[in-house]
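Researcher: For the annotation table, I need C-alpha cells for Phospholipid-transporting ATPase. Please keep the output clean. Sequence:
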Amino acid sequence: HAVHQGWQPLEYKMNMKVNKVCCECLVHTCRRKKELKARTVWLGHPEKCEEKYPKNAIKNQKYNIVTFVPGVLYQQFKFFLNLYFLVVACSQFVPSLKIGYLYTYWAPLGFVLAVTMVREAVDEVRRCRRDKEMNSQLYSKLTVRGDHSMTHPDDIIPYTQIPADMIFLRTSEKTGSCFIRTDQLDGETDWKLRITVACTQRLPALGDLFSISAYVYAQKPQLDIHSFEGNFTREDCDPPIHESLSIENTLWASTVVASGTVIGVVIYTGKEMRSVLNTSQSKNKVGLLDLELNRLTKALFLAQVVLSVVMVALQGFLGPWFRNLFRFVVLFSYIIPISLRVNLDMGKSAYGWMIMKDENIPGTVVRTSTIPEELGRLAYLLTDKTGTLTQNEMVFKRLHLGTVSYGMDTMDEIQSHIIHSTPSRKPQPPAPKVRKSVSSRIHEAVKAIALCHNVTPVYESRVNGASAEPEGTEADQDFSDDNRTYQASSPDEVALVRWTESVGLTLVNRDLMSLQLKTPAGHILTYYILQIFPFTSESKRMGIIVREEATGDITFYMKGADVAMASIVQYNDWLEEECGNMAREGLRTLVVAKKSLTEEQYQDFESRYNQAKLSIHDRALKVAAAVESLEREMELLCLTGVEDQLQADVRPTLELLRNAGIKIWMLTGDKLETATCIAKSSHLVSRNQDIHVFKPVSNRGEAHLELNAFRRKHDCALVISGDSLEVCLRYYEHEFVELACQCPAVVCCRCSPTQKAQIVRLLQQHTDNRTCAIGDGGNDVSMIQAADCGIGIEGKEGKQASLAADFSITQFKHIGRLLMVHGRNSYKRSAALGQFVMHRGMIISTMQAVFSSIFYFASVPLYQGFLMVGYATIYTMFPVFSLVLDQDVKPEMALLYPELYKDLTKGRSLSFKTFLIWVLISIYQGGILMYGALVLFDQEFVHVVAISFTALILTELLMVALTVRTWHWLMVVAELFSLGCYLASLAFLNEYFDLSFITTRVFLWKVCVITLVSCLPLYIIKYLKRKFSPPSYSKLSS
C-alpha cells in the first residue's frame, strides 16, 4: 500500500530474521519535468500539506498494455535490416512489382517478429511480477485514534526494510538510537548508528506525537546519500524548540533496521527517494557484433542498388525503367538475407543455453540473451571490491609487540599468558621503568584491544523479548557465549573483539556509560567510559578514556592508522617497518597505544574539552586541539593485523584477465587505505608495480599540478578518491581519462553509485572499447546497467545486482571461464554464422545477375516459389546453423593461453576485410555455377535450373564443411540430413525439374564437374594458407 507524503508517522515492528527483499528501483521512463522542492511536513496533519507528492510505488516495466506492440515494433524496425524487409515485403502487394509468391517474403518476416514479441512479453511479465511483489508490502501507520490502524484490512507484516525516506522520531531502545544496515544503498555492510529527534523521544507516550504542534523542514531531494540538512521545530511550547537535523536523524528507504522498533515521519516518497534518484534508467543493450553486421547490411544494400542500376543501364533505360529498377531491387533482395536475424537470434539463445548448462560454472544465469558475443570483446573490467573481490569477513591474523610477533598458529600462547596474568585487585605502586615482562605486555595489549572500540554485544534473547518485557533488568540476563553477537559500524572492530574473546578476555556488556569484560576465571571487570573520541576519516584514529571500577585508575587508550599514530607514540624503531611488512601481506594494520592519567590531569582535560564543545566558532578545531593535548608521548602497546578474506581464486582469475589484455579498474565505496590493501593482496596491482596515490584536490590549479605529477610516472597503478575524481573530470576530463587508460590498474575509492556509472560512460565515450562491470550490491546496479555487459554476483549484499545484470554468476572466479571460453566461442561463432548466411544470399544473387544479363536483362526470377524458400530453409538451414557448435580452440587451451583473447578485441573475425573475401568467394562461385550450367546445358532451359540448383546446394554443403574448424557429430548429421531432404524432395518438384533427365548419368557428371570447379580452388587456398601463415590458435592446437 503506498504511503502518502507528510502522513502520520509510521511504525514498524522490526524482526531481525526477515530476509532482505531486493528491490530494483529504476526511475520512470517518462520523467515529468517536475521540479524538486524543499518541503515542510507537519506531524500528524496531512491536511496542512499543499503540494502533491509522488506515490510510493516502484516501477521497472519498459512498456504498458498500450505501448507494448508499438514499442517492440519500433525496437525491431529501428534496425536497417528489418525495415528494409518490411519495405520489400510490402512492395509485393503492388501487382506490377510482384515477383513470385507472397509467402516467400512475408513468412520469414512474420516469424522473426513473432519470436521477438514472445521473448519481450515474457521479460515484461517477469518484471511486472517483481514490482507487484515489492509494492504490495504492508506497513503499520499511526493515526490520531492512538490505536494502530492498518493501512490494509489484512494484518501488519513485521518488516525490517524502510519503505520511504523518513526522519527518525522515536525508538523503543532506551538509548534513543538504533542501528541500521545500509548495504543496499552504499554497499557497506557495517551497521550505522542513527539518533532520534530528542524532542519527540522525550515525549512520555506514543499518542503525544499528535498532541504537539511540530513540523519538519526538509531540503529538496538530492542525490547525495551521505548528507542531509533540515530542521525540527515544536511551536506549542515556550520558547519554541528548534533542533537541527542531519544525516544521523534520517532513515533512507532500502535500508534495514537492525535493532529495536522505529517510528518516523515520511519526508520523501516514490521517485524523490535517495535510492531511486541514485539508480539510472536501464537501456536496451545492443551488441557490437549486431552494429557491425548492421553496417555490413547497409553496404550490401548499396551494392544491391548499384547492381540494379547497372542492369537497367545495360537494358538502355527502355520503357518503364523505373519499375524495372524496383523489380531488380526485389529480385536481388536475397543479397541481404532475412534469415540473418533469425539465425543470429537462435544462435544467441543457443549460446545462452550452453552457458547455463556449463558444469564448470554452476548457477550462472543469462538474463539478457541479446549480447553473449560482447563477452568476447571486452577491454575494460570494472569491479566492485566489497563482496565481489572480498568476502567482507574480517579475520584477526597477527599481533606484533615489537620484540615478539604472534601469528594464527601461536594464539594459544597468548591465551595461556592471559589466564596466568589476571591482574590482582589491589592497586600497585608505580613500578620503576624496567622492561616489562612479555606476559604483562601481552596482557596490556589484549586489554587495550578489548576496551578501545565502539562495539556493542547483543544477546538474541534480549532482542526477541524486547517488546514483551522491556523492563528486564541487567542482572538477570545470561551473558552466555552461545547467543552473543557483536554490533559495530566497522567489521574490523568486530574481528578484534572476537579475537580478544577467543584468547580469554570477553566483552559481555556495554551501554553509554560503562563496559564489562569477563576474564578467563569468570570475574567481571567493569570500566566506566569517561570520554569517547570517534573515528573520522580526517583523524584516522579513535580514542576512549576509561576508569577501572576496582582500582579507580584512569587510562586513555587509542588505536588508529600507522600514519596518524606514528607521531603520537613514544619513539621506537620497529613500527614503520612492521606496518610495511603487514601491508605487503594485504593485512589492515592498526596501532594501539595507551597513556595513564592522574585524576588532576583528567579533570584539567575535561574542563578544557567541555569548554571547546560549547564554543560557537571553529568548534571542530578547538575540540581537536583539546584532544591533541592528551595525544603526546603515548606508550606503544602493539600492532594488529586483520585480513579481509578474498573470494575463492581471485588472484589467479585477475592474473588470467590481465594476461588476456583486459584492464581492470576497481571502483569501491570503501576507504583509500583498505582499497589499496586489497588491490595489493588480490594482485590487482602486481608486486613490482608502483602505486601512485592521487592527492586530494579541490580546485582547478591543484588538479592541474597533480595530473602533471602523475604524467611523469610510467607503468604505475593509480589510486584516486571520488572527490578528487569529480574535480579532475570537471576541468580535465579528456587528459585524465587518457592518462588513466594507460595505467595497468586503477582504483577509485569512496565512489558513489552514480559516480561508478559515470566512469563506465567515460570509458565508453573516450576509448570506443567494450566495458564490463561486475558487482554484487544495490550500489552497483547503476554501473552494471551502464556497462556494455553487466555481470552480477549473488552475494551477501542481496540479489539486487544479480537481477539487474545481463549475466548472473555465483562466484567471481567463474568470470574467467565465462569470458575466455564462452565469450570467445559466442563471438567467433556468430561472426562465422553471420558471414556465411550473407554468403548464402550473395551467391544466389550473383547467379540471378548472370542469368538476367544473359537473357537480355529480363527481370525474371531464376528460381521460383518453393525453390527459394527451400533454399534458405530446409536445404541449407541445419548445416549453416550447426556452425554455432564450431570451436577453434578447446576450452582448456583458451584458459591456458589467455593471450588468445587479445586477438578478439581487435575484431578481426568480422571486418570489412573478411567480408570482402566472402563477397569475392560468392561472386566466383555464383559465376562458375551459372556459367557452368549454361555452357554444359542441353538447349533446354528446364535443365539449367535443375543442374545449377543441385550444384548450388552441394556447393553450400561443401562450403559449410570448409568453414568448420572442429567437427561435432551433430554437424555431420545436419549435412547428411539436408542432402537427404534435397534428394527426397526432387521427387515432388516436377514443376521445376524433369525427373527423367535428373536420373541420367549426364546430369550427374555435369553437376559434379561444376561443383568441383566451384569448391576445389577454395580448398587448395585454405590448405596453403593453413600451411604458410597459420592463425595463432592453430599453432597451439597442433
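Researcher: And a one-line annotation?
Model: The longest strand covers residues 635-646.
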